[in-house]
Structures are given as structure tokens and as C-alpha cells.
Design a protein that fits this description.
Helix 3 (about 65-80) crosses helix 8 (about 290-310), helix 4 runs parallel beside helix 7 and helix 5 (about 185-200) crosses helix 8 (about 290-310). The longest helix has 24 residues, at about 290-310. The radius of gyration is 20 Å and the shape is globular. Helix 6 links the parallel strand 10 (about 205-210) and strand 11 (about 245-250). The strands form 3 sheets. A 5-stranded mixed beta barrel has the order 6-11-10-7-12, surrounded by 4 helices. It has a two-stranded antiparallel sheet with strand order 1-2. The protein has a two-stranded antiparallel ribbon with strand order 8-9. About 35% of the residues lie in helices and about 25% in strands. Mean pLDDT is about 95; it is low at about 1-15. It is of the alpha/beta class.
């Protein structure tokens, strides 16, 4: 091959196509001399991001700090990554906003409850990955949800996140104007995760639409909140309509995950276990032991996915 010739340039082009970097759609971003990720207690002026995070390929996120700490211990064991007393320190220990743990190519970060909290975390996580010069990263939300027409303990891989009117979009008000963003998730990644669940053969895994709401109670058609403005008949009619529209579970973060991944060129996925069938009730009545086992199911499925991905390299 002639150095710098057409064949070499073609090979470089193929390699560049394989290496998918993170796009920051912000014209002001590159003008910043220093970037302080306030809610992580990290900054480009105080931390060497490429040295700390440059090898990250899987950014796994979930609501609870304890759940994400449990996940990093689990995945480290699965990948054979040793740690004294299996203790992985909280990288964001200087703040109480979020928790972050790392084991090899896996980052595990909590995002709190709801889209506002998750959005703040995602802004800073995506910037962290960009500053770290990471490539080919996938962001996967591991969570819990209410199922629609599924047995409790089923795991749903989100095809697309839909709003309360069953549309695959997220409407945000920015500078007083309505901005609508796409919330369809990466099809190939969703199918790959679904196959991992089927290979496990430990629980039902389905792909479907996920309804993302702004509220746990009225917004999810629950009758057991402090306020309720509808009848039980209206609730059931709405949930059945959701099921007919392809909705298989309800939670509160998938739309912002999908929208921000789409805007930044990051492949994203949402993997949630169902804690109850909403067609049969509103309250979660499982024992703590059963809930703990249910919550481990997305971790097991994503663990299989990560191991398979690493074997392909």
C-alpha cells in the first residue's frame, strides 16, 4: 500500500466510520476554557478526563445510587475485574447529587427520579465522555417500571419512548418556545439486548414502547395518589388504549435518554423490569426479597450484553 495513497485513505475512512465519537450540538461549547461538571464535582481544569474515563464503552445509568453501586460490583465480578474487598469508590463522593462508579470499560451512574434530574446528569455525563475522547459508547438505562399486560418481573426493552398521548416525542419549552425532539431508540441495539434476554432464559423479555411521564401518580393513571381527577373506568380505558398503542411499560426517564442520545449521536437503550401489571392494580405489593430479585434482572441482561460485546473485539 502506498503511504497516503487512495487505498490507505480508504482504510482510514473505514476505521473512522467504525469509531463513532460523541457529538456536542452546542456552538458555545468549544469556546469554554474550562468545563466544570458541577453536579459530578468534576472539572476539566482539575481532572484528567481521558486518563480517568478514556476507556469507557458502556455508560449504565439508573435511578438509585445503591442500585448502581450493586451493578458495578456485579459487572466487575462478571468481567473478572479485581478490587480489594470488591469496593469501588464513588467518583462523585464530593457531592451528594449523583453517584458514579467505574470498573474497566463500564461506568455506572445514578440519575435520580424523573426527567429533570436525569437530564442534568445526562448533560454532564455526555460532556464527560466527550472530554474523555471516548468512542463507540452506548448509554443504557437500567430501571424499574409498571407493566401493562405483562407479568411482574418481565423485562421490557424500549423500542421507542412515547408521551402521554402515545407519540414518540419529547416536548420541551426552551426560551419560552416549544421544542419537540425524537424519542425513537436505536433499533439494532434494542434487538441485540432483547436477544440477550432470550438467551438468559431466566425471565420473560419483550420489546415494546415505553410511556414516559412527568409524575408517578396521576400522570401514570394511578388512583392512589393524594390527588386524583378521574374515575377508575377512565383509568382502565386509558391504560387499555396505551396497550393497544404498543405501550408495555410506564416510567419517568426514557424520553430524555432517547432524545439526548439521538441529538449527540450516542446509541442509547432502556432496559426496565416491571414491578406490577397496571391493569391489575396501582400499588407495588411484592416482598422486599422479590423486589430485590426483580431489580437484578436488568443487571443480568445488560451483563450478558456487555460480555458479548467485549468478546467481539
Amino acid at each position: 500500500m502506498v503511504p497516503g495513497g487512495p487505498a490507505e485513505k480508504k482504510a482510514e475512512g473505514k476505521q473512522a466510520a467504525k469509531e463513532s465519537s460523541i457529538h456536542i450540538p452546542n456552538p458555545h461549547f468549544e469556546k469554554m476554557k474550562e468545563d466544570i461538571l458541577y453536579h459530578f464535582a468534576l472539572g476539566t481544569g482539575t481532572h484528567d478526563f481521558p486518563a480517568l474515563f478514556g476507556d469507557v464503552k458502556f455508560a449504565c445509568i439508573g435511578g438509585s445510587p445503591l442500585r448502581m453501586k450493586a451493578f458495578i460490583s456485579y459487572i466487575a465480578e462478571q468481567l473478572g475485574i479485581a478490587s480489594p474487598r470488591n469496593d469501588f469508590p464513588n467518583i462523585c463522593a464530593a457531592t451528594d447529587r449523583y453517584a458514579m462508579y467505574k470498573a474497566g470499560p463500564v461506568l455506572s451512574v445514578s440519575h435520580g427520579i424523573g426527567m429533570p434530574s436525569a437530564a442534568i446528569m445526562l448533560h454532564e455525563l455526555i460532556k464527560l465522555l466527550h472530554h474523555s475522547k471516548c468512542s463507540n459508547v452506548v448509554i443504557i438505562r437500567l430501571g424499574t417500571s409498571g407493566g401493562i399486560g405483562l407479568e411482574p418481573g418481565s423485562v421490557v426493552i424500549t423500542r421507542q419512548s412515547v408521551d402521554a398521548a402515545f407519540k414518540p416525542q419529547l416536548e420541551q419549552v426552551i426560551l419560552g418556545k416549544s421544542v419537540v425532539r425524537n424519542t425513537v431508540l436505536d433499533k439494532d441495539l434494542a434487538e441485540e439486548l432483547t436477544e440477550c434476554g432470550k438467551e438468559l432464559k431466566q425471565f420473560d423479555t419483550v420489546m415494546g414502547n415505553t410511556m414516559c411521564t412527568l409524575d408517578f401518580y396521576e400522570g401514570q393513571a394511578r388512583l392512589d395518589g393524594a390527588i386524583c381527577s378521574f374515575t377508575s373506568e377512565e383509568k382502565m380505558k386509558y391504560l387499555k388504549a396505551a396497550h393497544e398503542a404498543g405501550v408495555r411499560n410506564i416510567e419517568m426517564e426514557s424520553a430524555i435518554v432517547a432524545a439526548m442520545c439521538n441529538l449527540t449521536g450516542v446509541k442509547g437503550a432502556v432496559v426496565c423490569v416491571t414491578l406490577l401489571n397496571r391493569l391489575q392494580g396501582d400499588q407495588i405489593t411484592c416482598s422486599p426479597e422479590v423486589l430485590e430479585e426483580f431489580e437484578s434482572r436488568p443487571q443480568k441482561l445488560v451483563g450478558v450484553f456487555i460480555k458479548q460485546r467485549l468478546k467481539k473485539k
